[in-house]
Records
---
Amino acid sequence: MNSRGVQLASFLVLVFLIFPLIVIIGASFTTTPYVQFPPTGFTLKWYGDLVGRSDFLQSFIDSVVIGLVTVAGVGIVGTPTALSLRFGPERGRQVLRSFVTAPLTLPTIVTAVALLQVYYVSGLDFPWIAVTLGHILVTLPYYIRTLGAGLESLDPSALEAAESLGASRKRIFFKIIMPGVVPSIFAGMIFVFITSFDQVTMSIFFSSGSFMPLPIRIFSYIEFAIDPMIAAVSTLLIVVAFVAVIFMQKAMGLERGFAA
Amino acid sequence: MSAATQGSGLVRTRLEATALMLPIYIYYSIFLVLPYMLMFYLSIQRYDPVELYSNDIDFSNYVDVVTDPFYLGLFARTIGISLFVTVVTVIMGYPLAISITSARGKLKAFMMILVLSPLLVNLVVRSYAWLVLLGDNGVINSAVMALGLTDEPLAINRNWISVSLGLIHISLPLMVLSLVAIMERFDKSVFEAARSLGAGEWRILTRLHMPLALPGIAAGSLLVFCTVISTFVTPQLLGGHRFSTISTVIYQKFTFSLNWPLGATLAFLLLAINALVIFAHGMMFRERHRERAAQ
């Protein structure tokens, strides 16, 4: 089945997937004042420009803070949920699973405008809280599924043995369950952070001139101008994404991390 | 140990299981169920330029949308491009999935990293990459004009071509994942048997391989279609005002024109299309599919 033709086609498809990212990375080093690929010369000027942009720095800080608070919120709400789905009664578990993953099935833009409306009615003026609450909502299913996959892969005989030997629940939790699922929790949290950090659709409706997470800052910038500085900031985000993929593969294997 | 024990040791009664679910019940009630209910209420109100919306309750927004040629065109265009992108991702993803499934060790891991990494790269960055490639002074047009093939920039930006390319780029990894998942489960000996009985490669592909992969193709298509039809970032940046989709019009209604009731109506219709497609898929394949990508 894996003939020459198939291999050639696969190679071209991989090029299609990766080439646009290579263009961005290349263009971020160009000495021309406009985006060019292959780049002319080599300069770090655009990265230097980026460091001097306090608006981009503020957006970056906002995105990191939102990402961290999202990870904390998702952990607090999602961890007991995953435990309940794994160890609770069998009956009705399927329905609960569908309910819990509902935000994945609902289009993010629809959820975003629905939240926007509640935010408007509430009369509050804390856009970053609204954005964080929205991020928690759309990332909870990922975390619950990743942790759920980890809980499923625990050795049931170890749990049964501990129980029949009369281990307390506290002991079962801290000595058997937690050590077994730390990689899943870790992978889930990385995925949640990245998803929050990259989230555009949920954030854009709450953003304004005074509050703009990093992707929204880039979004509003490139609606008007395409210059190499954006290639520089994009390159940094691409590097972060690749590092995250390798981290997740180390933590629990790529396919499991994504399929979870 | 009580009779209610499920052999789990950690959660011993239904009450305890429910107590653990309490945080998510509360969270979803306030930030998911309530907002959707409020939005439905909004969609059956009338737009009022002064007060944003008035309290005349009827379904006139829905009637307006489904009788207006502009919105019918918008829906046809959005559904059409989503179908097109879905078909193209099957065609592009299939050979790649075959290669990944037959690769081993380091090569396989490397191919998987290449396929999955774009998924974690910011959507805005991926759209920006296509702007750089397809723009009038972009990489492709500069190359084509330098070669003297054309004097004017090709019409590949801010139309269905740029939007399709951007959407294929973001959804292809999802298709490949679905296809690899099913091909990993294939029993290789079936193909060897067919080969030893004299079946040609093409015949094996169309009569054996593809029928076996059908559930994966269907799952991937559902995932891609539902992702693409509601994606907002890519059509907004690559289509601009010249190629709008349902999502970009919803965005516009909620931010610039402030016609929230109409925006809410469009949002519910988008939701209805998603639900219909998922339902139809469920009827056809009788499988549970909860997968769906972000954005």
---
Amino acid sequence: MKFGVVVFPGSNCDHDAWYAVSQNLGEQADFIWHDSTDLGGADAVILPGGFSYGDYLRCGAIAKFSPVMAAVRRFAQEGGLVLGICNGFQILVECGLLPGALIRNRGLKFICRPVDLVTVTTDSPFTNQSAKGEIVRIPIAHGEGCYVADERTLDELEAEDRVVYRYLDNPNGSARDIAGILNRQRNVLGMMPHPERASDPLLGSTGGLAVFRSMAAAVEKAAVR
Amino acid sequence: MSAITPDLVAAHQLTEAEYERIVSLLGREPTYTELGIFSVMWSEHCSYKSSRLHLKKLPTRSKLVVQGPGENAGIVDIGGGYAIAFKIESHNHPSFIEPFQGAATGVGGILRDIFTMGARPIAVLDALRFGPLDDPETGARNRRILEGVVAGIAHYGNCFGVPTVGGETVFEPSYAGNPLVNVFALGVFRKDQIFYARAEGEGNPVIYVGAKTGRDGIHGASMASAEFSEESHQKRPNVQVGDPFLEKLLLEACLEAMQTGAIVGIQDMGAAGLTCSTCEMGSRGHTGIEIDLQYVPQRESGMTPYEIMLSESQERMLLVAAKGREQEVVRVFRKWGLDAVTIGVVTGDGKMRVKYHGRVVAEIDTRALADEAPIYDRPHTAPLRTAPLEAPGFASADLNRDLRTLLTSADLCSKRWIWEQYDYMVRTNTLQGPGGDAAIVRIKETGTSVAMALDGNGRYTYLSPREGAKLMVAECCRNLSTVGALPVAATNNLNFGNPERPGIMAQLVEAIEGMAEACEFFETPITGGNVSLYNETLGEAVFPSPVLGIVGLLDTRPPLTIHFKNPGRAVVLLGGLGTCDPVRFGGTQYAKQVLKDLWGLPPALDMDYEKRVQAAMRRIAESGLAESAHDLSDGGLAVALAECSFGEDPIGAVIELDSRLRPELLLFHEGPSRILVSTADPEAVARLAAGYGVEAPRIGTTAADVLKISNRGAALIQAGARELKEAWEGALEKMLHA
């Protein structure tokens, strides 16, 4: 299978995501330039972390207008797997593929730290290789990662089993400790923690590799079917 | 154009003699623009006129050094066809005037120095010095400066996408009116793809890339070459504003453009902006450069040639392309949405000729500007110091309380509050981030790693510039050896007061000489760096504060960290207990935090023994015998033991010493050449150490959640490791929010 890693001007975890899926996982991976109108035949798309277009406005607010996002939106609507990490999550909520918003951390400071996450659901193409309730350690690195949504949306996310990860010790004030959520079709995941930083035993944790491995398994399964 | 009056010359911080030299070099009176150009190029910041004579004493070569001082950064061969470029630079003055932007642009400037050579930045470290956070008079301002500086570094580095992996933060009253912000950056590239800042090839086009030029930062370099007065805050407009996003684009565009093979030479526009880049590239290439300022992209209207030449707007580069291939370069920059405009041409006449709409506004020999700058042998007497030599009488009332005082002091407490604001993991190479003895970053391309540490101890250097500088080199090397890395090269940042004062000049000279001797001995040549003088406010100089950054090489492997991993392991003190007398105790953290005093001399250093201890340590790390390792420095043995205990799951130790030293000295003296190692096999460790003529006594055993230290049966320290850790970890935030 082939992962496509989108590169916006200002993306800075693009290479890290590419390295995790190609070198740590061993799948094929290509970069997709932001003004591209197609995804180059990728089976799954990663929107990486960083500061797309500088993020001087609202995080992700400019990226949503880039040509590649039209292609990503179509891809998602057709059921393609889309993983938004950190800035990628911010972009996904800005362009309406995921509900809610990401605002400044409770303490108003950027936080870089490994955090423990509870795997809330395994009914997703991103966690099919994980165990329910499993605790994984994956780093966060963001200034605007406090997830907020209205009560009804939050209730809905929970009722529909769309919360994928929760913080064990909430670092940023996110509503209901939410660290990652799915869209209703369950093929789009946005998460603030960086699984690509926890995919190599040398870096202290491999808790994030399961996300990419799950995506590969889901794509393989779909291909067999 | 206004006539050049003595007042105008003085306002440009040029002396009468310097002005006469300008007139004789030009063979005529300078134009106003030329006066501005000379004033920045001959400023202390750009010309090193007070330090150059002494900097020559530093060793700069080794088998691994590819490029020493004189380029944008030093370069060291790391094997496997790859090299690293690294340098440290200060942004002290701007950070005092405008902490956030001052620090942010400090990061931006040093990053450009690295990638202008073709290297991709993979690590940043910073050495910060502030006034005391709890000072009744200056505390509020010191806290504000700290918060601003940290936020500025975070803003720039995080957005750019370079991990900030380490550094050090120290507080002293002498920095209250003049904080120090020294930023170190390191990048990696293929050894056959190094770019130099040289304008070569007559007729080649000179291309301006990056941000547009504005009026910010005009005379920044001159500002950095003067003392502060009460009016200094009016200089805020001299501080530049940084745009890390633009810098990130510039990085990617430059590295991509370099791949085209169409770039001949490239230099960033840092201090003194277009002036410095133009004349330095010409001088290094033994050529001339002719530019016309009408083509320079500008973001404000009505800028004069003087302003354009002296602007220090950030995120700009000047490059020379191969004639006829400029479109290949321009295409890459366009792709990244950046300006790339041909503004001139390389000439053969050795002159920097600046035109404005075709009219010549400056014409100066490039070598006159860059190489003919005045060099001063400033008078130096005895190093300035007022501290007494003799030790006062002192006796501890409560050693446990003293330890806690030290661990919760601003200098020694956990700096997590600072470094968690930095993305220290981006690029997924950080094997060891902040909080260890040295940062370790792997190089994916080679399978090897680079370790880095910054060190400097203003108190030691104040008590003895020469010995303090040697101790700094020894400690910095020791930090690297403790993680198993071989120190190979260094970069230095010399932060001192006004060199026109003989006592300050003596500090500078002796520190350089001490550093030279130690760098020679430890085989860590200086490959570049920065000198920051005039760090004074209202006549009050900072402590003489050289800061050293050393890089070391090691194989990529799980890092050897400082924390005890298991209870029941032997604790070995590699190098032995060392010794100390009260005179040599006066520069310690104990003297500072507990006794609120400063006297005597820094700890005694035996460089030969130090070198052997470090060699033994590297051998032990390589053998896999050590479960943890931590060198002794600030706060001595007791503080180091506590720090070893502060792992995620605190594990302490029961230590039984056998020493004739009095308890305060035994626990807290800062004698060098000592490293704490925990191991399951202390005999094997001792055997390895003995091979180097180094003692490695077993001093105790790790134990769950307790830190007990006794000497000859007398209990000295007894505390819970977890409880100590909590106090240590929360101290900084408590001080900031007091």
---
Amino acid sequence: MSQIPHKEDSNDEVILSARHIAKSFGNVHALKTVNFDIHRGQVTTLFGENGAGKSTLMKILSGVLQPTSGEILLDGQPVNVTSTTEAQRLGISIIHQELSLAPNLSVRDNIFMGRELGGPTNIDYAEEERQTRLLMEELDEPIDPLTPVEDLRLGQQQIVEIARALSANSRILIMDEPTSALSASEVEVLFRVIRDLKSRGVSIVYISHHLEEALQITDHAVVLRDGVMTAYAQRKDIDLEWIVRNMVGEGFDLGSPPTGYRMGDVALSLREVSVADASVPDRSVVDRLSLDVRAGEIVCIYGLMGAGRTELLESVAGRIPLTGGSVVLEGHDVSSLSIAERIEQGLVLVPEDRQRDGLVQTMSVGENLSLASIGAFTQWLFTSRRREQDVVEASIGNVHIKTDGGGADIGSLSGGNQQKVVIGKMLATHPRVVLLDEPSRGIDIGAKAEVFRLLSEGARQGLAVVFSTSEVGECLSIAHRVVVMSRGRISAEFGADVTKEEIMAASGEAVVA
Amino acid sequence: MTNVSQAANGSQTRSSGGGFDLGRLLLEGRAFFALIAIIIIFSILSPVYFSANNFLTMSSHVAIFGLLSIGMLLVILTGGIDLSVGSTLGFAGVFAGFLMQGVSFEFFGVVVYPPVWAVVVLTCALGAFVGAINGVLIAYFKVPAFVATLGMLYVARGVALLMTDGLTYNNLGGSPELGNTGFDWLGFNRLFGVPVGVLILAAVAIAAMLALTRTPFGRWVYSTGGNARAAELSGVPVKRVQVTVYVLSGICAAIAGLVLSSQLTSAGPTAGTTYELTAIAGVVIGGAALTGGRGNVRGTLLGAFVIGFLSDGLVIIGVSSYWQTVFTGAVIVLAVLLNSIQYSGRKKKRPAPSDAQTSSSQQRTATWRTNTAVESPAEESASQPQQ
């Protein structure tokens, strides 16, 4: 379990090593004794599924979190990374998935934000600008220091973040999913910058779900699974298959497609559905996509971040408007109906982000569960408490929510149980078609299996189920059909006998050159 | 307070966490205890404070703030704010006064004297109209509530001033020949010894309480304020709810305007200036969160009474009005401080997802498996295997 990476080459200098790092949140062990080395001037990539502990480890290295036990050695000396400021002083910077730039300020002001040059009363803008220009030249990106950041493309904004880290003399740069929102050409620019940084002795820790892409740039691969480092290897010794095998493991059985019943007619039919990009209206995030789902069928939509899965599901549920095409539910066009009307017709969505879109944190478990089906226990003007109680108790029983009862605070539940509340709330409306956007996000493997079992039970009773995921392993569980989305379109469709490699290849993970 | 609200929300099963916690009780019932303390302190300081008559007089002052506060509560529960209620109150009073003077249609050469009930209906409609403009701006045009209602604060006040040229209507009595007497019934008179204004407050409060706790609309209000995105995805007509609460707030302000001008037997265009702030204070003292989703009518009423009884008490014992302002401000800040203690305490109380929960969910999984094992053969025989 805690195999210590061995040094092979003598020029392979370890700049930072984490020894026996463990981190617990209450009784949840996010990391269990992880050993991890960062080599000078090389790229180390962390592989692992959601919840494997990658971000926890990175937060510890960058001072956001403190480890429960274990130590961090920088140049062989034990250091205490107590805060992000301390990390920055030690030369460790992190570039988050969501960039932390102030869009209203110029490139120059962003790079020197919080470390303005000059005296306490006046900023030395000229010097800042000169240094910014120099940095941009070094990075080979002709960005004018006075451009407001909001006018830059996302890839350029990322370069600005990198420049900021460099100007703070960072020796170790942690990049969390840096390519997830970039176009192929922007990825190339980023990789060129990374190679450039390597030659200057900057060490890089890289996290990405795009496995093939990461393989192009990395020198070392570290695989995490359930808080344990399961494998370490040098780039030359490994391939994609090795990573997937170590990431997923021999595996927890998430179930298999339910069989032994007859599927019904087409329940949901998407015809040439298009959705415009919210920020670039000319671009379509979902591009003339057609899909039929039968009653009793479970369809998995696999795709990388930015493939348009969320936009597709939200537009079908009525949250965002279609720019073309139609959504047909059991033969009736529901494209012009409101969310509430679609719920009434039997089309419901379990959103991706349960904290932001799924739960009302100020209401109890019971009130959350009954929120979508208030009509069922309303007589004339007033709600019936007795009948609401019935609805709530039935839901708690149906989706197996572990709670003190309907009156409990929603915050007292674990992530998995909260997710079951969101699912239970939508199932209480007796839908015909249920859409679930990443239903397994941020819940543990046991709860994940249970959610999937709920879905297959629903399908067995004639429910049409469409769920999206960014974890390949989940496609190979209960889905009768796997649809791979890439750049707003269906790039491939498979039956239940598909392999992980086929799915990954179709998703575009292998495409970027 | 919160215990009370939880019961009102139909969640009696919530466990208190065991043990009698005096600090928690005082914190959660703070508005109630504050009111008791105010009554006791002023009764000691002044012999005239503790009398039925004084309470009724003070209550009729509270009625104005109470009405505004209830409307404000609805808005704040959805996460909004309505700064225009004080101006709407003044505007409504002036509008009622204007109607009571008779509306002359010069073109036809007639003067119409609407009866009092029609004045009431028209004034409430005016309040609803003002609220509807606020609501539509906020819900559909995405104008921040603070800005939209701040604008309305000025516009409504300005229109009220324009209507009277800054003067006050003093003749609201009507005359029997014209059939428009009875305006004093709205607030000035007493019914069974109780000022009518207080009875109106009670009726509005009961209606609001029922609406919030026993109707789908109430649930929609709480969910919109708690998490509008989640509410929308659950089929709650969030935009309509937003417009409705501003309309109701406008109606409450119009009713308050009618009651106040009846109490004063005059309608001036500057009536109700800064009352919106008092109304917000009442809601906040009553334990509602300005971020929305938390609060109830009972607390808000208590909050209005705390403010009213405190300021009247200070008048009775002869404290200068400058000090009254200082005291009121201090009470508001203290209330918000206690609110944040209460709500942050609640967050800390949340236990992290524990292994105990995980293991028991796995136990449930196991039970579930046995269930399907029993069920599935039956299902398979019912429908021939096909897929």
---
Amino acid sequence: MILQRVKALTKKEVKKTVRDPAVLFMIFLFPVVFVLTFGASFGGLGGSQPVYAVGVVNLDEAVPPSWASVFLETLSNTTILHVQLYVNNQTAQSDLSQGNIQAVIIIPSTFSQSLTSYHTAPNDPSDWINATVSLYLDKGSVVATQALPPIIQNVLDTFVDQNHNTVPTPIRMQIASLIEVKQLSAFEFMAPGMFTFASIFLIMMVAQSFTQDRENGMLKRIRVTPTTSTEFMASQIVSYMLIALIQAVLVFAAVHLIGFKPQVSVPAYFTAFAFVLIFSLSNVGFGLITATVSKTSSAATGISFLFVLPQLFLGTFVGSSLSPVTQLACKFVPSYYVTDALMSLFLRGATITTPTILLDLFAVSSSCLLILAFGIVLYAKYFKL
Amino acid sequence: MVNAAIAVENLVKKFEDVTAVNNVSFQIEKGEIFGLLGPNGAGKTTAVNILCGLLKPTSGYATINGYDVQKEGEKIKKLIGVCPQENAVYPYLTGIENVELFGDLYALGTEDLIKRSSVLLEKLGLSNDARRKVEKYSGGMKRRLSLVMALIHDPQIVFLDEPTVGMDPQSRRAIWDFMKDLKKEGKTVFLTTHYMEEAEVLCDQVGIIDQGRLIILDTPENLVLKNSVENLEEVFIKLTGRKIREEI
């Protein structure tokens, strides 16, 4: 492999990205503009904390002071939540349906009993009495469906087990999430997904680049030079990894500007950027698959959405409010693991050695390499590189 | 055949039920300008693509400087320069950046690359526009740039696929002069065209191809003489009963 060729082709690809206004917008400006407007819309800008109105129906049978009353107090102390008490579920549901509140929490009758059993024998689940806290959400509110489940789950987890041990507890919530950071805005919950979101659009760029070069005869022209297919593909991979890195830096600057300032170590940032870079491999792969089946660059634009949309809806910040079946489907897109890893790194304080991160790394690396390999083989089969 | 720059024997290329190149044989000596003439769709570009290693022939045999085009593609790629029919240039790069890119693909040294690109750009009248983005070039300028990109590595054998198509007469003359210079430098030129006057002016040997078949092969003078006509256009009409092209 002659590096001079790889370097020249990489330089060409980067120049294309920087000089073509359409590509420049799609790759760099669109994600930044999106982050800024999205952040402004979801409470990330201006420093003020959003407050969500939450109704609570306390069905706990224990006499106060009980675990339920302490839980209520914890909820009320959370500045992000404005708690209103309801005597029964019917009244609460009525207010929910009218949009007066954004969620209803039902504390079950066995709540205190369950917690007492847990604290009496914390290491013996067979002695516990299980209880389920139900959460009803205003399905018409994106904010409620996105942000509230993790916030309430976090409060509940913190309340039940101060040490955040990984061992199970008898209290369950029907919509679960594991975000541990207190008093986050909706934007901050979604910020890790923004990195993944921005990178997904590389699929379209790769597909367009290959089809355009095919249309204008450039691929054929390169094929009559001594450039090998390995050199050519290496240049494409390096180019798009570089573009993904620049993109991630810009998105990071934008989310930082909006107010997303995770208190994590430098290695955590490096790990996060590594995830984004590995993820860009799958985007090159999907781009090649799209370019294989697309006859023209405009067709490639449309077809690329077949890969962009599932990755977007199942693997970025919009995934937290999906149905259980859809959440299962999320496990089949690489973007899910990238967002999950970034959430763990930025919001849960995980490190590279945390099992979740290692598992995500394995899932992202293996799936991305497979998709890339498949893309290269498919493209090479129909259009020689 | 071993000493020929290009040798083709019984070459056939079929695309499903269409025979694009049908049992074609010819030989081109080193330092010769060979013109393959024929109307659009005659099989000229298919023949060039086979010789450059872009297409596999259905049957037959072809060599470039004695190297088998099917088996020794890597050696051949270093010997040849190809200027394709379409304006294959990167519009978002400047003229010089396009040229330097191809210089790098041929792994030229920096000094060689600077020297050669400056000479070629000067010869083809692009020096003053070399630092402008190609998207701002006229069609003729793009063709000339494409030619510079094909020749940056100083190839021994040059394939020019319709190099002057769509050019104004002045630019066409400039390309013709440039091709004559290539011949003086001892390069072998394989030219495809449907401009008969171009072939008459430039070519040492001409092959006329129609519907994939090479119908005649000789020097332009002999073709005119043997067919008792005035020019190559009339040769084509006499042999095929059709005009090679509509108005230019």
